[in-house]
Specification:
The chain is mainly beta and 519 residues long. Helices cover 5% and strands 46% of the residues. It has two domains: 26-304, Tachylectin-2, Chain A (5 Propeller); 336-514, Jelly Rolls, CATH 2.60.120. A hairpin with a 2-residue loop joins strand 15 (198-210) and strand 16.
Length: 519
């Protein structure tokens, strides 16, 4: 009897413990590509900016009431600039560049988002009084201040930037440039706390003033080690600065600090996580002798005393039936174009309930094509399905569903010699290679792409269906590696491009996304 009693008590405790775990937040808080986060809290609401580089619109703004459940509410810009690289013109592109590492701030009733772009060699500062609805005012100047952070203090604004050597300058009153005479070195060797055998010197600066003291967050990457959080502290901007390693666990690094309305503190960071991209983590913070101490016994916890995640659908990614009501935006915020789109060549109004993609020039490769419409893939697994009407394709047109990164793959309909066929293509070798092909004798076809990111398996598979019920795989299972030339997690994409003659078009009936492959 006593044994049975102990077993019952153990089961009750196990259930209670698991129930508690299931109602807590889990790291990562977003299992998708949301890197270089900058987070602020305005009263009870948190806002976060992030990096999407070559995508348009860019610098996504997300909103949360609990640091865990986020939804896209805005973008700082619709188009970064009108240059060939952003427009995919004249053989140029800006893969892996565009805008990086934004800084989000709130000062005297105005929201500021700053970023920089190697594509244009400029620094950008966007401002608005309404972060969710805009409009945004744009200021730009040269050069591009790498991984910079802005601090507002006593009616002045400062910008810090650099890699290894961190510099600082005061910005002009209208934020249109720095005051050259104020430019100086803030910290000569910000990497020093993490040693001298370094693969990546200190970068990713985020500067804060908290309780009268200044804190500078950076990351470094010791050779043979992992991404490491470094914090420097000073009583004055002029120094002296004292630095230390603040966290070295799982490669979770790069970010800053945010407090809750109750006075709790957290650090927001991210981890390189293979093909799905760079994914955000939240780490609890305690203050000891005016230093923020990150993690639990120096480790990144798997669970947090924060509300449970409700999932990334519909806040970060979402399905779309392309059926717009009056006054609805043509495209919800979950969508981003691969580079600047040509807005004359797409529509959700030409045919009600469909996304129409038209061809306007001849291209030879998917990554050269205009108007590829994308959403993030999500982990640990995800899939996307679509229904495509190819009645109006021209000779040489290629249209379908892709998994976009440098080593991309896709399933598509191609019209060749007057005949339509379904093809599966992989660019794993650096060039496009057709791995499967079957004839298509109808004008509607269903496509599906599945991603498996569990334990960084990073694999993808493409399927087609002629009736939406019975699915057949085509081609091979492909690897989905994270590559620096694109510097982004894989994206689901809808595309249509011409290889011989322009003027054709295709209609996508819907895009459905799920975080479960088996459904």
């Amino acid at each position: 009897m006593k044994f049975r009693y102990f077993i019952q008590i153990a089961l009750i405790l196990f259930t209670i413990n698991n129930y508690g775990q299931d109602n807590k937040a889990h790291n990562p808080i977003i299992y998708a590509d949301v890197p270089d986060a900058s987070i602020i809290r305005v009263e009870n609401t948190y806002y976060m900016s992030s990096t999407t580089m070559h995508m348009s619109p860019g610098v996504p703004i997300m909103k949360s009431n609990d640091l865990v459940n986020w939804e896209l509410v805005s973008y700082a810009y619709d188009r970064l600039d009108e240059v060939d690289a952003m427009n995919l013109e004249n053989g140029k592109s800006t893969y892996g560049r565009g805008s990086w590492a934004s800084c989000l701030r709130y000062h005297k009733g105005v929201f500021y988002v700053s970023t920089f772009a190697a594509t244009t060699g400029k620094t950008y500062i966007y401002s608005t009084k309404n972060i969710e609805k805009g409009p945004w005012k744009k200021i730009s100047f040269s050069p591009a201040y790498h991984d910079h952070s802005i601090l507002f203090e006593n009616n002045k604004a400062y910008i810090v930037w650099g890699a290894g050597k961190i510099s600082i300058a005061e910005l002009k009153e209208d934020l249109s440039d720095i005051k050259e005479e104020t430019k100086r070195v803030l910290i000569e060797n910000a990497t020093a706390p993490s040693g001298d055998n370094i693969m990546l010197p200190a970068e990713g600066s985020q500067l804060f003033k908290i309780r009268g003291k200044y804190y500078l967050f950076n990351i470094s990457w010791p050779r043979g080690g992992m991404r490491t959080v470094i914090i420097h502290k000073a009583d004055n901007l002029s120094g002296p600065w004292e630095g230390r390693v603040a966290l070295q666990d799982k490669g979770v690094a790069q970010g800053g600090l945010v407090s809750t309305p109750k006075g709790e503190w957290f650090s927001y960071l991210f981890k390189d996580n293979g093909g799905v991209g760079r994914i955000p983590y939240i780490v609890p913070v305690k203050w000891v002798n005016d230093w923020p101490v990150l993690g639990e016994n120096g480790k990144v916890p798997s669970t947090l005393d924060l509300p449970k995640s409700k999932g990334l659908i519909p806040g970060i990614v979402n399905s779309d039936n392309f059926d717009r009501k009056k006054n609805e935006k043509d495209l919800p915020l979950v969508w981003q174009w691969n580079h600047n789109p040509n807005n004359d060549l797409w529509s959700v109004k030409d045919r009600k309930g469909f996304l129409r993609l038209k061809t306007g020039r001849v291209d030879t490769l998917l990554v050269q094509a205009k108007n590829t419409l994308t959403q993030r893939t999500i982990g640990p697994e995800s899939k996307a399905t679509t229904l495509l009407d190819v009645s109006n394709m021209n000779e040489g047109d290629v249209s379908g569903l892709c998994l976009l990164q440098k080593q991309y793959g896709f399933i598509a309909v191609k019209k060749e010699n007057g005949i339509k066929k379904i093809i599966m293509v992989s660019a794993a070798s650096g060039t496009e290679k057709e791995l499967g092909s079957i004839p298509l004798k109808q004008n509607q076809v269903y496509f599906k792409a599945e991603c498996d990111f569990k334990n960084q398996k990073d694999s993808g598979q493409f399927y087609y269906s002629l009736d939406g019920k019975k699915w057949e795989s085509l081609g091979d299972l492909i690897k989905l590696p994270y590559t620096l030339p694109h510097f982004m997690g894989y994206r689901f994409g809808l595309f249509n491009y011409a290889t011989k003659q322009i003027g054709g078009f295709v209609d996508f009936d819907y895009f459905n996304i799920s975080d479960k492959i088996s459904e």
